[in-house]
Structures are given as structure tokens and as C-alpha cells.
Design brief:
The protein is about 25% helix and about 20% strand. By secondary structure, it is of the alpha/beta class. The protein folds into 2 domains: about 1-175, Glutaconate Coenzyme A-transferase (3-Layer(aba) Sandwich), CATH 3.40.1080.10; about 195-425, Acetyl-CoA hydrolase/transferase C-terminal domain (Glutaconate Coenzyme A-transferase, 3-Layer(aba) Sandwich). α2 (about 40-45) links the parallel β2 (about 30) and β3 (about 55). The N and C termini lie far apart (about 70 Å).
């Protein structure tokens, strides 16, 4: 890497010592993550970050490092967990904040929150603007509140449309790298027989012309394949991956509608598709996840996965077997927006058949650690390999009966007994 001059700075080579000088005095640093993660950042952060806190949106799928360092007493604040962050959380070096996107946005945008930002961007255009590239989810809303912004220019970073770019003069310094953008490839073998059955049930609830939000992972992969025969599908979602490329090639997407998202995380196929493409509108979470925006989208269908659903209709997408595995992320905002959308629908997909250790699926009550990601009143439909449980307009007992009907047949008698016990304890 070499330092690129802004009008007020002289070029100089980048190394850990040079970056250390740029970060001198930093108290709390915001860094880009997901597919905009800065390569080799743990090795580049040096003594200037002693006793600082480094905060970012770190994808549990794509970002594998932890920026905490016990020798430097450097902490890391994260809203999602990967194995390295989980390790450092156990060591007391990580502040884990499992919040919804609206809560994250409010916290990040508080005045005086950060004194420094270190972000990867595209090269400046003819107007001397650098694009946020593949990660627009939060930074555009609080960039102006950060006194010192250091940009890492990467010619491999796609130039994306939607949020205004960052003027070159806004940066305290510009660095350059030509490293590959981190890539994520959906699991092509994820759609097994159970997943295919679930996806077909979900796709049957989505009409042509609907606006769809898809989470990431196996459920999204299967639903994408099942939507290949649909037409005029619109996307308004927090993150896009190569499943979008498949929908585009299948002719399922509405060519006249913008694709609204905040983050792209996929392979080079996706990054090439979005590069300079005005059809893609990259916006911050204050737009992609805003209830007032989502509620105005006609037929907005939110499709998300769950680890467990209990017989009250509560959704757990965060923990299993006593362990915290994930965060709410944008799920709460999307399901509430879908329920307020004219013709909208909040759908949760999960395997009815429990996993190898008996975890997951439909249960009488959410298991420890008792995390409820979506309240019962925000859930419209639960889809399993055994069918659809449409919970809209059902009584408490009706919801339990509908869920038991799509549960694994082997555990249905146990669920009937469990519901009787839960009901007696609650109302007896």
C-alpha cells in the first residue's frame, strides 16, 4: 500500500508505523466491515490503538478476524459474532451488542461517538467523489460527525449508486490497496430435500410483482431457486448476495424497478454487476429498514429463517442449546414493515425436523437462553417442510394447533402434551 495525497498531504508509503501516526490519539475508531473489510487490518493496527475501542459491522460469514488485542488492551465492539470475536468475548475483550438495526443506527449516530473512521472506498470519480462501495448500511448517516476519516482506496471496489459519495477533501488521508474484495459464495448444496420443500411452500406465498426481502443463508438460497419462475419481483433488502445474480439471470426480477439494499456480499460476478449500475440503489439503514418506508411498499414480503418457533408463535433466530449464536440484525424492522405493508406478509422458514441434538424446530417454549427475535404478534406465517402455518387471525389455541400441524410428526404428540402443560400453567 502507498499513501495517496489529498491536496493538503504529501504521499508517503503505508506500513504499520505510518498508519500508527495517522491513528495517534484515537479513542474510538469505526472501521468498515463485511465485503468492505480492510485487508490485514489486525496486523496494521499498532501502538497508537492502545486502549482504544474499534467498532464495526463485522459479518459472521465473511469477516473472520477480531480486532481486539490483549497486549495493547485494545477492545472491539461488534454487533455480530464470528469465532474469533466469540473467543475474545470470553476473554473480556469484546463488547457484544446484539441489537436490531434501528438501535445500532441510533447508537452509531450519537454525537461524539467516534473520533476516527477507517473505511475502504472506490477510487474518486471525475467529481472527486469516492463511493462507499459495497457497504452503505450505516456510515453515510454519521460520517459528518466523525472528525478524522481515513480512506483506503481500492480500484477493485465497485462504484455503487444511491448514497452520495465522499468528497476527497473530506478525508484526513487516503491510502491505496489493490487487494481483492472479500468474497462470499452461497452454498450450492444447501438446498436438500427438506430445504427445497420449505422453499416451495414459501415461494407459493409470493405473488408476481411482490417486493421481497430475503435474509442470507440456506433459506434464502432455497427460496431464490424456487422464485426462478416468478416475474416482476422487486427487491428491498438489507443485503444482496449471488442469489440476486441467479434471479436476474432467471428473468424473475422487474427490470424497471430499482434494487434497494445497503450491503453487497458475494463473488466477483455480483461486484461486477453492481459496479456503476444505476439500477442498484445502495442506501443506509435509515432508509432500507425504516418502518415508514417499508409500510408504504405494496405487497412487501419479508422472508427470514428461524432456529425455533414456540407454540405461542414466538421466533428464536439467535440461540440454541444454551448458546448465543446470532443477533437480531434487521429482522425486527423487516417483519414489522411487512405486517404494515398493504398486502404484505411476514414469513419465517425453518426445519420442523429437529437437528442431530434435538435442537431447533417447533417447540412448546423457546429454549435457553430464551432469546425471542420476533414477537408472536409480528409473525404471519411459519413454513416448514410439512407445510404452511398461517397464524393470522387465529386464537392462542388456534396458533398452537396450526404450528403442531406442520411440526415433525414424530414430536407432534409431545407438542400436544407440552401445550397442555404450558396452557395450564399460564391460565390454570
Amino acid at each position: 500500500m502507498t499513501l495517496i495525497s489529498t491536496p493538503d498531504h504529501r504521499p508517503r508509503p503505508l506500513n504499520a508505523k505510518a498508519l500508527d501516526a495517522l491513528l495517534a490519539g484515537a479513542r474510538e475508531i469505526y472501521v468498515s466491515g463485511c465485503s468492505a473489510a480492510i485487508p490485514d487490518l489486525p496486523a496494521l493496527l499498532g501502538p497508537a490503538t492502545r486502549r482504544t475501542t474499534v467498532t464495526g459491522i463485522f459479518s459472521p460469514i465473511l469477516n473472520t478476524d477480531s480486532l481486539a488485542d490483549p497486549e495493547l488492551e485494545r477492545r472491539c465492539r461488534t454487533f455480530f459474532l464470528n469465532p474469533a470475536l466469540r473467543r475474545d468475548l470470553a476473554r473480556g475483550l469484546v463488547d457484544f451488542c446484539p441489537w436490531s438495526y434501528s438501535a445500532i443506527a441510533r447508537w452509531l449516530a450519537a454525537p461524539g461517538r467516534f473520533d476516527t473512521a477507517l473505511v475502504m472506498v472506490s477510487p474518486p470519480d471525475d467529481d472527486n467523489l469516492c463511493s462507499f462501495g459495497t457497504q452503505h448500511d450505516f456510515l453515510p448517516d454519521f460520517l459528518d460527525r466523525i472528525p478524522r476519516v481515513i480512506g483506503i482506496v481500492n480500484p477493485n471496489m465497485p462504484r455503487t449508486m444511491g448514497s452520495p459519495g465522499i468528497p476527497v477533501e473530506r478525508f484526513a488521508a487516503l491510502l491505496q490497496t489493490e487487494s481483492a474484495i472479500p468474497e462470499y459464495r452461497p452454498d450450492e448444496g444447501a438446498a436438500n430435500a427438506l430445504g427445497t420443500a420449505i422453499a416451495q411452500h414459501v415461494a407459493g406465498l409470493i405473488p408476481d410483482g411482490a417486493t421481497v426481502q430475503l435474509g442470507i443463508g440456506r433459506a434464502s438460497q432455497g427460496v431464490t431457486q424456487a422464485l426462478g419462475g416468478h416475474r416482476r419481483i422487486r427487491l428491498h433488502t438489507g443485503l444482496i448476495d449471488d442469489n440476486l445474480v441467479k434471479l436476474e439471470r432467471a428473468g424473475a426480477l422487474d427490470p424497471q424497478a430499482p434494487i434497494v439494499t445497503g450491503v453487497a456480499m458475494g463473488t466477483r460476478d455480483l461486484y461486477d454487476l453492481i459496479d456503476g449500475n444505476p439500477r442498484f440503489r445502495f442506501l443506509s439503514a435509515s432508509r432500507t429498514h425504516a418502518l415508514q418506508v417499508l409500510a408504504q411498499l405494496p405487497v412487501f414480503i419479508a422472508v427470514n429463517s428461524a432456529l425455533q418457533v414456540d407454540l405461542f408463535g414466538q421466533i428464536n433466530s439467535e440461540g440454541s442449546e444454551g448458546r448465543v449464536l446470532a443477533s437480531p440484525g434487521g429482522l425486527p424492522e423487516f417483519v414489522r414493515g411487512a405486517r404494515q405493508s398493504p398486502g404484505g406478509l411476514s414469513i419465517f422458514a425453518l426445519r420442523a425436523k429437529p437437528g442431530r441434538q434435538g435442537a431447533g424446530g417447533i417447540v412448546p417454549r423457546i429454549a435457553e437462553p430464551g432469546l425471542v427475535t420476533a414477537a408472536a404478534h409480528d409473525v404471519d406465517v411459519v413454513a416448514t417442510e410439512n407445510g404452511i402455518a398461517d397464524l393470522r387471525g387465529l386464537s392462542l389455541d388456534g396458533r398452537a394447533e396450526a404450528l403442531i400441524a406442520v411440526a415433525d410428526p414424530a414430536v407432534q404428540p409431545e407438542l400436544v402434551r407440552g401445550w397442555a402443560q404450558v396452557r395450564a400453567a399460564a391460565f390454570g
